[in-house]
DNA sequence: CGAATTTATG
């Protein structure tokens, strides 16, 4: 008997070891690396995943995916403010043979942008002559994007003019799109509008994105009348092709009136444009803050049934928060469970609100289940605060591992029930017992 | 698979 057990255990251990070895040392497969990076929050681990992957295949893999993984790793490092590591890592790529390929250099430039290191991005762009890398709008746009990601908006028009002239590059709709974004961020919609006219003059297509960027900027600085006139001008006179994003900009500025929101969503459907999750989130939020929880729930329920649209993480967060606010904690808990199932879990503060509410309502089973679930799901930086919260609420015992402890706790709960028949505040006795 | 846009922080 014990031999069989031992054998089984040995086999189990060896598979586990083999698995650990494959994940740590070699990830040949790209989607595997991506999956793993999404879960790995330690920047060193992220770097290891990236380098094991990038050394594993030099030329064979689709380079676009590899570059995406590089940006993910840089993002993780930047979050921990490990800028010298980022520099060392990205600079080391400059000795690789692919440095003569423009997409490869562009990826380095964009990665520096993601890290907020705009001077390194610019230096890399200037080095391209030394590398012998050809220039096109690809690297030009990468540099502009790096400025935007670094929030160095004032540099965008400077680089835009200087480098397009110096290297004889013809800006495309993406270049112009980023120039427009920069002007909008610097609160000068006039210049953004001028850029739009320049695009028309040069025969570059003005699409929904560029248009929506300017529209949003106008609303944001409170020029509502001008925004509406701009919509009429561009849509009715110039026949711009709209998308859900354009309508979402308008929806975002109808806050207090759920009926108007609903009407505008119907209008977009009549125009043949499908509302996206963001559109529905505006409607749901508006119902919630105007005390129309049942209507909000109906939109949410329809969204779960609908084909082609899914609730996103913000949908679950809004529904959980406002259900809690209305005291509907069990309903909120059900929504939370679904969000876990689909991997779109609300943020820490929302879940804090929920677990506190469940505890106050004496829904201990649900509260403890929640603590256990999130112990597995939260990244390390949030896990500490979560464990502290669970401790304060007296939820650290999960009631299954230690039978004795859970019995004692159960007895205490029952006692408090008997003590205060009809009273609904069990919070104090809970605090006292911990 | 991807270049530029748009939510809510209660």
From TrEMBL:
Keyword Repeat set for record: yes
Q: Does the keyword Nuclease apply?
A: no
Q: Which InterPro entries match?
A: PPR_rpt, TPR-like_helical_dom_sf
Q: Where are the PPR repeats?
A: 172-206, 207-242, 276-311, 312-346
Q: Name one Pfam family in it.
A: PPR_2
Q: Which UniProt keywords apply?
A: Repeat
Signal peptide feature range: none
PANTHER family membership: OS01G0228400 PROTEIN, PENTATRICOPEPTIDE REPEAT-CONTAINING PROTEIN, MITOCHONDRIAL
Q: What is this protein called?
A: Pentatricopeptide repeat domain-containing protein 1
* Species in which this protein is naturally found: Salvia splendens (Scarlet sage)
